[in-house]
UniProtKB/TrEMBL annotation:
Protein name per its UniProtKB record: Uncharacterized conserved protein YqgV, UPF0045/DUF77 family
InterPro entries xref list: MTH1187/YkoF-like, Thiamine_BP, UPF0045_domain
PANTHER family (UniProt xref): UPF0045 PROTEIN ECM15 (PTHR33777:SF1)
UniProt xrefs under Pfam families: Thiamine_BP (PF01910)
Entry's family note: Belongs to the UPF0045 family.
Length: 100
């Protein structure tokens, strides 16, 4: 993988349940992209080879939150990009912490 992003979507909402509902819709969108992703408690990591595709996904996450009913949305994004190599994969970063 040449690029990875971690995105935390923070929709404005009236209740925790509404925040979760909106974030669930954003995660469903991320899943629909077909890219490898990992949902954590505070952010979702996504990885792929096409940097522009990942940036489009970051943009669309906010649009999905608005379409789901959030009057406004903030996002924190971390980007790792290595055009001439490989970034550390989600698996390499987390596997040792999820083994039984």
């Amino acid at each position: 993988m040449k690029a990875s992003v971690a995105i935390q979507v923070l929709p404005k909402a009236d209740s925790d349940e509404e925040v979760c509902r909106i974030v669930d819709e954003v995660i469903a969108y991320i899943k629909s992209t077909g890219l490898n992703y990992f949902v954590g408690p505070c952010e979702t990591a996504i990885e792929g080879d096409d940097y522009n595709q990942l940036m489009e996904i970051v943009k669309n996450c906010q649009l999905v939150a608005i379409k789901a009913g959030a009057p406004s949305v903030s996002a924190y994004v971390k980007i790792g990009y290595r055009p001439n190599g490989e970034v550390l994969s989600i698996e390499k970063k987390t596997k040792k912490f999820h083994e039984n």
